[in-house]
């Protein structure tokens, strides 16, 4: 199962991630290759609450939410790739490195989050990911991030 390419719609995403509006930042994951790589989609809309203050009259998606969207895509990838759906999976940031922002992300954009596992294995607790977020093929942000995965593989098996 972990080597097949899969996808996740919003219903499956909500069975994997504990996040809910307004902090669920991935609408679908269109490509999942085990727990090695994934591509998530975030449709950026004006009705998101952070646009009220960031910035009035010039709405720009905050960089930290772009990085969070990449991390949530990685969480969905782990949930599907390791078959731990409906398991109360929690993932916590440990660090964010080499983070760079290259272009503004604004309402109407479709943000694509490309994530790859750099280090980590099935049943492991520590994972490192590489992420790149793009809009229309142009890099908006990139980062490496590590996460602690809080799961009990015996309960999720």
TrEMBL record:
* Domain of life from the UniProt record: Bacteria
* Keyword annotations from UniProtKB, A to Z: Cytoplasm, Lipid A biosynthesis, Lipid biosynthesis, Lipid metabolism, Lyase
The keyword Glycoprotein appears for this protein: no
Q: Which SUPFAM superfamilies match?
A: Thioesterase/thiol ester dehydrase-isomerase
Reaction(s) catalysed (UniProt annotation): a (3R)-hydroxyacyl-[ACP] = a (2E)-enoyl-[ACP] + H2O
Q: Which Gene3D superfamilies match?
A: Hotdog Thioesterase
One Gene Ontology term, aspect cellular component: cytoplasm
Offer one example of a GO biological process linked to this entry: fatty acid biosynthetic process
Which Pfam families does the UniProt record give?
FabA
Q: Where is the active site?
A: 54
Instruction: Give the Enzyme Commission number.
Output: 4.2.1.59
Q: Where found, per UniProt?
A: Cytoplasm
What molecular functions are annotated in GO for this chain? (3R)-hydroxyacyl-[acyl-carrier-protein] dehydratase activity
> Its function?
Involved in unsaturated fatty acids biosynthesis. Catalyzes the dehydration of short chain beta-hydroxyacyl-ACPs and long chain saturated and unsaturated beta-hydroxyacyl-ACPs.
Q: Which family does it belong to?
A: Belongs to the thioester dehydratase family. FabZ subfamily.
**Under what name is this protein listed?**
3-hydroxyacyl-[acyl-carrier-protein] dehydratase FabZ
Give the originating organism: Ruegeria arenilitoris
- What are the top taxonomic ranks of the organism? Bacteria, Pseudomonadati, Pseudomonadota, Alphaproteobacteria, Rhodobacterales
